[in-house]
Specification:
19% of the residues lie in helices and 33% in strands. It is of the alpha+beta class and 719 residues long. The strands form nine sheets. The chain has an eight-stranded mixed beta sheet, sandwiched between helices. Strands 3, 4, 5, 6 and 7 form a five-stranded antiparallel beta sheet that branches. The radius of gyration is 26 Å and the shape is globular. The chain starts with 11 loop residues before the first strand and ends with a helix.
């Protein structure tokens, strides 16, 4: 195939607000049409042929990832009921093997706090393999685990499997005493199902035709009766989720958009009861709730943004039917609002309230003894309670998080990583302030963190805002010379690209490339306002911020401004498409992963997956002509110019339900039609057995990232 596939043009029109847009590639949406499938396979063949010269580099990067990874490895055991659960990986296998050991010591007493010492490849006494995902997935084209829920008493495991990538799961039930799989299954449900504490019931959610979770149900295991509907969300702009409360007394049902939410409580002792609404959506408050009993009296902890842009946490009476403003008068501030701190979540152990909050881009863990809540109730003060945080994290930029906390234990399990530090797991004992390192993920091949540098810089945006950027490179890089740059970004949904370690990234850094993350507006790195300044009618800030970061980098003496490659995925793929239309001359290559590049067409159709949910993020172009015109002015598909574009590859999956394959397929076809003839032909790479995250399995993921890095390095290093 010396020439790119010729994409048939079939005229169709889209008419809104008096504007007619002619679309010649909408026919590619017909997923079940054999002509479409044949065309996509032809595109794959062309991409493979066009990048054949990169195969050796791909294989080298894949082998580097493989050689640096301890393939036979394990996780740190986590306590659930009377068992310690953990997973192992085995060299040559794609998926984890889930195991457990009893938590009983020789004297018969339950050891609460110290996980067993587990070694890679060495089974423990009394160790049980309860789910080998490799065996389960052996004959499947795709495998993704959507839930893993063992019962507290250790007698039952329920787990969900997606075997196509479309995010519809079949739920299975495994008797852990006999290790036999029940014939009872629940097909076509959403991810995240979980067992009630007594293991009698599975709580799960269903999705509608647009892939929106809309209903929470309770399934009595083995009862053979019709499942009980706990709640149905009829508003197609609201996403529905549920969770077991931290104290295991309630099902907490949350309907939410990016701007407000509704939380309902269902007591486990009576799941037929009408769900109790805490704050109605008419008040446009974004909040979360956890029931808690203090000295036998029921209360709730509420994290909310009512007159608190970055959120605050309050202690409130258990909700009744009183009006919101009256109820609000009864709240006591636990962690008051601060303009420089964005509260992101909370939970509690047997002794402490645990809060994760972001300050100056960095997520930190804060703790307060539950006794302080008792004192707060006595004093009725609104000054808040005193929080402390673990000490010992000394890097300039890093990421911490709470990976496990339980009402049964005072121990807080904390995860830690940075751009140069492999993931660590700590157990923190807040009463003694002892921080115990349980494990650091090994990196083979004589890796030393001090051989690399990571630091924060600030790039000026054109409107005066200062954009944080993360810069990572080898410590021995000669900064008196110019070097190529790989620039990554996302910038939507208040998602923050926090520091994380990547073995694969070493293959970029060790070839002399500087890796940069642009923490642009629309993300959450600088708090709620940073997000709001990059959404709806301010969305273009996201794209211009990214270009302004490129401008800033190009002015550094250690950057080769002619060698900057860019990458982003999903909404980050929209970013890449928009940026290429704004400033194609600034980049030497671009990777757009599962890119949301036909955004306006998608958002205009409420029947497409997740479209109505997106109105709170982008605006509603169906009802609002201003939103329509604004989105049309940046949507990548509609704004391709007749100029030279850099080499581009769009990477997608046939079964993706979040960003349909048709968006990048149409975009690539339109790029080829519109851009100047001296551009390198844009490519489409499509995984025919995958979803939003691509194919399944760790080796597949390694090959995918090796493919993308080889594509970028080809142009960064003139391979």
């Amino acid at each position: 195939m010396s020439q790119a596939p010729v994409t048939k043009r079939v005229e169709s029109s889209r008419v809104h607000h008096g504007d007619t847009f002619i679309d010649h590639y909408e026919w590619l949406r017909a997923k079940d049409d054999s002509e479409v499938v044949e065309y996509l396979n032809t595109e794959n063949a062309y991409t493979e042929q066009s990048t054949q010269s990169q195969q050796a580099l791909r294989e080298s990067i894949f082998q580097e990832i493989k050689e640096r990874t301890l393939e036979t490895d394990l996780s740190v055991p986590s306590r659930h009921g009377d068992w310690w659960y953990f997973s192992r990986t085995v060299e040559g296998e794609q998926y984890p093997v889930f195991c457990r050991v009893p938590a009983l010591v020789d004297g018969g007493e339950v050891e609460m706090f110290s996980p067993p010492q587990v070694q890679a490849g060495v089974p423990l006494d009394q160790e049980q393999v309860i789910l080998d995902c490799n065996e389960f997935a052996r004959e499947l084209p795709f495998f993704s685990l959507g839930s893993f829920s063992p019962s507290l008493d250790g007698s039952l495991l329920s787990f969900g499997v997606d075997d196509s990538g479309d995010e519809r799961y079949t739920q299975y039930f495994l008797d852990l005493e006999t290790l036999t799989l029940s014939e009872e299954t629940l097909p076509g449900i959403f991810s995240g199902a979980y067992l009630t504490p007594d293991a009698s019931t599975l709580i799960y959610s269903l999705v509608d035709e647009s892939w929106r979770p809309y209903e929470i149900r309770a399934h009595r295991i083995g009862a053979g009766e019709e499942d009980c509907v706990l709640f149905t969300e009829h508003d197609n702009a609201m996403w529905l989720s549920s969770a077991l409360s931290a104290d295991r007394t309630h099902i907490v049902i949350t309907s939410f958009s990016s701007e407000f939410s509704e939380v309902r409580l269902v007591p486990l002792q009576d799941m037929s009861a009408e769900p109790l609404l805490v704050i109605g959506k008419k008040h446009r408050v974004q909040y979360g709730v956890e029931p808690i009993r203090i000295d036998g009296v029921p209360y709730v902890l509420i994290m909310h943004d009512a007159d608190a842009l970055n959120s605050e946490i309050v202690l409130a009476p258990y909700p009744t039917s009183q009006p919101f403003e009256q109820y609000r008068q009864l709240w006591l501030k636990v962690m008051p609002h601060r303009s420089e701190v964005r509260i992101e979540g909370f939970d509690f152990s047997s002794t402490h309230l645990v809060v994760t909050a972001r300050e100056n881009t960095t997520v930190r863990v804060f703790l307060a003894d539950l006794d302080r809540l008792r004192a707060l109730l006595r004093s009725q003060s609104n000054a808040g309670v005193v929080f402390s945080e673990p000490t010992g994290f000394v890097e300039e930029i890093y990421t911490t998080g709470v990976s496990h906390v339980s009402i049964d234990s005072p121990v807080i399990r904390i995860s830690y990583t940075s751009w140069v530090t492999p993931p660590r797991i700590y157990d923190y004992f807040p009463r003694t302030q002892e921080l115990i390192l349980r494990r650091e993920t090994p990196v083979l091949g004589d890796y030393h963190a001090e051989d690399y540098q990571a630091y924060r810089m600030w790039a000026p945006a054109r409107d005066g805002a200062m954009i944080p950027i993360s810069v990572i490179h080898r410590a021995d890089l000669d900064l008196s010379q110019q070097h190529p740059v790989f620039q990554y970004g996302y910038g939507s949904y208040e998602v923050s690209i926090d520091p994380y370690f990547s073995i694969a990234r070493l293959s970029i850094l060790d070839r002399g490339v500087i890796y940069v993350v642009a923490h642009i507006r629309g993300g959450g790195e600088m708090g709620r306002q940073w997000y709001q300044d990059g959404k709806k009618l301010q969305k273009k800030n996201t794209f211009t911020d990214f270009v302004d970061v490129t401008e800033f980098l190009g002015q550094r003496p250690w950057v080769d401004q002619k060698k900057i490659a860019i990458s982003g995925a999903s909404a980050g793929g929209l970013l890449i498409g928009a940026v290429l239309n704004l400033a194609p001359e600034k980049y030497c290559a671009a990777i757009a992963g599962v890119p949301f590049v036909d955004a306006l067409t998608t958002i205009l159709d409420p029947d497409l997956p997740l479209s109505a949910l997106e109105w709170e993020e982008w605006g509603n172009p169906i009802e609002d002509a201003e939103v329509y015109e604004y989105m049309k002015s940046y949507s990548p598909y509609e704004n391709i110019r007749h100029v030279k574009y850099p080499p581009i590859v769009a990477v997608t999956s046939f079964n993706d339900t979040r960003v349909l394959y048709v968006e990048p397929a149409k975009w690539v076809a339109q790029l080829r039609k519109m851009i100047s003839t001296d551009s390198v032909t844009p490519l489409l790479k499509i995984e025919m057995d995958g979803g939003h995250g691509g194919g399944s399995g760790r080796y597949t993921a390694w090959r995918d990232i090796a493919w993308e890095y080889a594509f970028a390095l080809t142009y960064l290093l003139d391979q």
